[in-house]
Amino acid sequence: MAVTAVAREVLRDFNKLEAEGRAYDASSNASKIAPDPRVLREFAFKRKQIALSAILKLKRTLPPSDWAGLDSYINSQYRLGIHSIASASK
């Protein structure tokens, strides 16, 4: 339950940020001005902030053994799967 609630919150936050990014991109394109690198860095910072916030919420919500299992899975099997998909697409 805790994982689902955090995941939904993260998806909502990422979708909101993506909409803001698309709006900024559209306004830059409409005005024919290159996007400001500072603004792009702010978007990247906000994405990292959303992800780190979710990690902290999960750490606080899950029992230590559940967190350890999730962390172990993400940092081993899940990452290997992502790596193999990325390597296969090159």
| Tally of distinct domains | 1
Task: Note the gap between the termini.
Answer: 37 Å
Pick out the low-confidence regions.
Answer: none
Helix and strand composition category: mainly alpha
The helix/strand order is HHH
Q: For the residues shown, what is the average pLDDT?
A: 89
Computed CA radius of gyration, to the nearest angstrom:
17 Å
Strand content: under 5%
How helix-rich are the residues, as a percent range? over 70%
Number of strands: 0
Quickly count the helices. Answer: 3
Q: Which overall shape is indicated by the principal axes computed on the Cα atoms? A: extended
Specify the biggest β-sheet.
Answer: none
How would you describe this structure in keywords?
mainly alpha, 89% helix
Topology:
Elements: H1 2-31, H2 37-61, H3 64-88
Helix pairs in contact: 1-2
In short:
The protein has 90 residues and is mostly helical. Helices cover 89% and strands 0% of the residues.
Structure description:
The chain is an all-alpha fold and 90 residues long. It has one domain. Helix content is 89%, strand content 0%. It is built from three helices and no strands. The protein has helices spanning 2-31, 37-61, 64-88. Helix 1 runs antiparallel to helix 2 (37-61). The longest helix has 30 residues, at 2-31. The protein is extended. The model has no long low-confidence stretch (mean pLDDT 89).
